[in-house]
Specification:
elongated, FAD/NAD(P)-binding domain, alpha/beta, binds NADP nicotinamide-adenine-dinucleotide phosphate, 7 helices, 5-stranded parallel sheet, 7-stranded mixed sheet
Length: 321
Amino acid sequence: MANVSEQRAIENVIIIGSGPAGYTAALYAARASLDPLLFTGQEPGGQLMITTDVENYPGFPDGLMGPDMMVLFRKQAERFGTRVVETHVTRVDFSERPYGVFVGDDEYRSRTVIIATGAVAKWIGVPGEEEYGGYGVSACATCDGFFFRGKEVIVVGGGDTAMEEANFLTRHASKVYVVHRRDQLRASKIMQQRAFDNAKIEFVWYSGLDEVLGESEPTKHVTGVRLKDARNGETREMPIDGVFIAIGHKPNTELFKDCLDMDELGYLKVEPYSTRTKLPGVFVSGDAADRVYRQAVTAAGTGCMAAIEAERFLEAEGDGS
Ligand code: NAP
């Protein structure tokens, strides 16, 4: 019986993921006449699809909405011939070349692969958290802190991310409460001390987020939170303007756990100042390999790097190898 894959041409480059990294890699690969094939993944557009205004992407002085931005990214990649397939890669086979990328039983083979699967912020999963996402609930202080000028916010979490977010938010907010479920922080000592020394930060210990409270009129916004005491289960309401969830991120790298090196948190390892992995012709861009910066502009930057590296790799190998 003929397999569909037998009739399929071998691709030059398959890109997995459709955030700023994936689309930028696609744009550069398409302009290099590599005819890239891009699989969007389950959430086309990635994390920017759940961001409201993006004001820190250079070139857009008036800002723009995250989802609108991703429409533009896609349009630009498609303009030069990127083939975008809205589907989710279920498996890869990097044990032989050309590399295998599978969508269910459907098999694709490619001489190079650019991984741009991104990361997702971890959410707590309490009522109101999703409903008010982008309307007062955020997982990115760098993206959304600016909208809380002179307001009071809480940051949930006790790790380095929470301390970093809390410190950053004091540039805008009048008061930042760090809500943590224990009375000890997981954050590094230096980050803890910085937060303790910041007069605008107050700690709310033994407290878990139980619910985000809000109103829909006149516009959808957060009015407060219900906190639950971790010691006795008692709940209390706290009025607040914004909620930042900072309990960590999770890179979407499960697909590659058997074939690529990753750190203890699942971020893929690349060679310094490059997007190269230990496998020739497999590159990683964006948040899947970045636990530090995690910005749209840095993701786009590494997407560009990955495409240029793929192009050079193919060129060095010569056609048809
Ligand atoms: P993390 O170290 O795993 O800390 C997560 C925090 O969130 C912990 O305090 C944890 O509480 C809390 N938490 C987890 N699930 C929760 C839930 N469901 N409800 C309430 N609280 C919850 O994650 P991270 O802070 O994102 O840091 C990840 C890694 O990146 C670390 O290695 C960190 O050092 C690094 N990082 C470094 C920097 C920097 O150096 N500038 C900045 C950010 C991150 P418990 O403590 O009770 O478990």
